[in-house]
Amino acid sequence: MKKYLEKLPKEIQDLIHLASDIAAKNKMPAYLVGGFVRDLILGAKNLDLDIVVEGDGIRFAEHFAASLGVKLIRHRRFGTATIVIKSNLKIDIASARKEFYPQPACLPEVAKGRLKDDLSRRDFTINAMAISITPRDFGRFIDSFGGKGDLRNKRIRILHDLSFIDDPTRILRAIRFEKRYNFRIDSDTLGFLKKAVKLKILESVQPQRLRDELILILKEERPIKQIRRIHQLLGFNFIALELSVSKRTYKLLRAIEKQIKWFRQEYPQRRPLDTWLIYFMGLIENLAINHVQAICKRFVFRKGEEKRILAHKKIGSKLIHRLSRAKVNPSIIFSLLEPLSYEIIILIKAKSENRNIQRRIKDFFEIYNGMRPYISGDDLSGLGIAPGPYYQKIFSEVLNAKLNGRIRTKQEELALIKKLVRT
Ligand code: CTP
User: Which residue among 157, 240, 313, 411 has its CA within the 20 to 30 Å range from the CA of 7?
Assistant: First the structure.
């Protein structure tokens, strides 16, 4: 595997060599594992280094972080640690472990183990390969379950018959990897997956774990493929019994995909979208608000996420109605859209084919978004106006005049203020 490693960016190779030195000094055999090895062989970009050590993973990670002069996050319960080098480059370090599932679908009990144990507890053969980075056998490839052959044959295959029963979230993971890489779930694996679905095994999984897997799916580059496969294999009861996904839903999801592409192309400098949230809102579009509230509660979304989901549900239709009128002043467009998150605005653009709405949202992003008056509080007190709630009124009058194109320069703003104060 040395030749694969040599093709990696220098920064990653340096990190691997540092890990190798630490392994030697501390007599802890270390291995690259999981998704990193899979993507290395596939030639897909992956900057999440996954390292397993035979020994104390947290101590290994402490040495690693100290050598780099960066912080680490410890997860003592699992004997793992994460080192974040920069926003898109992180290293997960774990002690090799065995897992026992005392009950199906629950989190496993964990005990120290060897690499082989650690690989045997994993989801699919393509995620259960390892490369030694210990200096004495640096680059040795460990593939006890035929992962490389499955990569070649584009196959998603579990390691043992009870895999989906032990961890039903793997049903969603199988679909995610299958569609991401354009693979096929192997026929035996598909049989076990269907059996697990029949047993309604997903119902026994903690909702937050389902939420996390669903978010990962919706974060994929083009998640509609995955959503279709979920539809075909298990349906959406795991989100809500009332949820029905129809042709109209897919039409909306496709429109969402198009609008996300548009936004990224037109405004690459703006903050990145939480695209998963837009797809999620699209997916549950047909549900009544009380059912959406129930999902938010069960899935325990973060406050900001729940707020956006519910805000759209409450005001979305009214907003579309107001934005589609024949004549709408820019100041009204601003007052309607400025308080909303980009995710809701993109969803509204996807939902409505109305040309007025399309143009107004484009104008909003291009011209009005973030617009403020030039004048400040200091200018107002300079004009002898005593601070108070009146300031807010003046600011909004000035901003509206500016949005509607009645004034442009700071001089004109000041002139308007003088006029306002006089009346
Ligand atoms: N894993 C598993 N069962 C799960 C979750 C994870 O066996 N339910 C194992 C797999 O070996 C996986 C590794 O843990 O490769 C890391 O998990 P994760 O980071 O979720 O997945 P990646 O394979 O790295 O995939 P991605 O490219 O989506 O990050």
Answer: 157
**What residues does ligand 1 touch, defined as CB less than 6 Å away?**
34-35, 48, 50, 122-123, 127-128, 167, 169-170, 173
* pTM of the entire predicted model: 0.91
Distance 309 CA to ligand 1 centre (A): 28
Nearest CA to ligand 1 atom 15: 34
- Widest pairwise Cα distance in the chain: 86
In eight-state DSSP terms, residue 364 is I
Distance 163 CA to ligand 1 centre (A): 14
Take residue 106 and report the two structure tokens written for it: 């629950």
Quick: pLDDT tens for 131-170. Answer: 999 999 999 999 999 999 999 999 999 999 999 999 999 9
* Sequence ranges of the domains in the chain: 1-153, 154-235, 239-368, 377-422
Q: Decide which of 1.10.3090.10, 1.10.287.130, 2.30.30.100, 3.40.50.1000 is the CATH code for 239-368.
A: 1.10.3090.10
Residue range 154-235 forms a domain whose CATH class is mainly alpha
What's the 3-state SS for 171-185?
Answer: HHHHHHHHHHHCCEE
User: How far, in Å, from the CA of 405 to the mean position of ligand 1?
Assistant: 54
Query: Could you count the other beta carbons within 10 Å of the beta carbon of residue 212?
Result: 14
Q: What is 1-153's CATH number? A: 3.30.460.10
The per-residue pLDDT for 346 is: 97
- Cα 170 to ligand 1 centroid, rounded to whole Å: 10
